[in-house]
Amino acid sequence: MIGAATVVGLGEATHGSHEFFALKERVFRYLVDEKGFTTFALEIGWPSGVLIDEYVQSGRGDARQILKEALGGSPFEREEFLHLVEWMRDHNRCSPGRRVHFMGDDVGAPRVGDDFFERVTGYVGRHYPQLLPRFTELYTGLRPLDDAIAYMGGPLPQRQRLAAGAQQALALLEAQQGAGGDEFEWTVQHARSIAQTATFLAYDFGDAKALGAAELYRDQLMADNIAWWQRHTGHRMLLSAHDQHVAYVTADPETYPKLQGAFLRDVLGKAYLAIGTTFDQGSFLSQDKSLDGPWVKFTADAAAPGSNEYVLDQVRYPDYFLDTRSAPAAARAWLDTARPTRQIGTAYPCPLDNVAIAPSYDLLIHVHRVREADMLR
Question: Burial level of 367, CB count in 10 A (0-12/13-18/19+)?
């Protein structure tokens, strides 16, 4: 079913269920062993992905502490991802000729530490020392960005000014071709991540229209980062994100006008493949609507009649996958129709979204029952 796809987007119907997170490791390990995939991409900040990948490559440090630093406060600060990262490190130790990598494709939240800024300014200081004072000036007030949530509470004009400075720093670095080479390209991408983060955090999140524009920008930049990595490394990649970020068709056009999956299909064509997930009942971790509380357990009863999950759970197999592209005509008509569907993210309770399965995903994985993920201890 995956065929020749170079980027496979694997969604999750909740941001906090064990089965979906464990499934991602299982699929990735299959793709590594059988299809030559070499990168696991996650819906976390680019700086966090860099930190985790350095452990996956070197084994230096304690994996649990590194993940607490990189994933702290996110939906992915879970034992399931520690298990994945430790498997990736063991794979690289045992198979150094077939190394795997970990990347983050999102904006740099919850923080972009001073050490990450140093990846840019340190390079500039070594290769373009005459430009270092200008970079220092452009990053002043932004460096370090220790708490993205607190930062968004700052004055909007100040955030917009700092975002403009980060974009100027990126443009200034891009214009320097003297050193060139791989280190230069990676440093430019690090500077791009800083600029992306500052730009995203400069939106007025109290304005409903601006929120849609911010999420559109975010899905575009996530797709850009995936495309950059795939183009730069040549790796085949598994992209792990919420169902609403891997799909082709948005279920909430006001908040999410166009999704990462749609942007990736524009860039990669059929080399991008989207897999959605659904479940009938069970528990998961989420936050309340304030988004600043702890992650706690919630429970969902069996899906209600009229929903996608209600019909999907009538299949004689409790857990299964299907290829929506090869469905017979009668089934395709059902799969093409939008119906209420659970897409649970970082806040619960939340309304059901109207999702048409076949236009949204190439493949679908349905799970009868899920349980809450395991908090990283």
Answer: buried
Please write the tens of the pLDDT for every residue from 329-377. 989 999 999 999 999 999 999 999 999 999 999 999 999 999 999 999 9
Entry pTM: 0.97
CA 348 – CA 206 distance, rounded (Å): 20
Residue 222 pLDDT > 90? yes
Q: Give the C-alpha separation, 275 to 362, whole Å.
A: 6
Q: Closest Cα to residue 266, out of 219, 321, 203, 319?
A: 219
Here the tokens at position 347 are 């806040």
Query: Domain spans of the chain?
Result: 7-105+230-370, 114-200
CATH number for region 7-105+230-370: 3.40.1660.10
| Token pair 């409790």 in the structure block, residue | 318
pLDDT of 194 over the 80 cut: yes
- Reported residue count of the chain is 377
Amino acid identity, residue 190?
H
Per residue, the 3-state secondary structure of 212-233, as one string, reads HHHHHHHHHHHHHHHHHHHHHH
- CA 1/CA 225 separation, integer angstroms: 25
Q: Show Cβ contacts of residue 37 under 8 Å, excluding neighbours closer than 6 positions.
A: 8, 28, 31, 100, 235, 236, 237, 238
> pLDDT for 287-297, tens place per residue?
987 667 899 99
β-sheet bridge partners, residue 287: 347
DSSP 30-53: HHHHHH---EEEEEEEHHHHHHHH
Q: Which fold has domain 114-200?
A: de novo design (two linked rop proteins) (1.20.1440)
The tokens of 362 are what? 């190439």
User: Does 179 score more than 70 pLDDT?
Assistant: no
Which residue spans within the chain are E strands per DSSP?
A: 7-10, 39-45, 101-106, 237-240, 272-286, 296-300, 320-323, 339-341, 353-355, 363-370
Task: Report the percent of the chain where pLDDT is more than 70.
Answer: 99
For tokens 């987007």, name the residue: 9
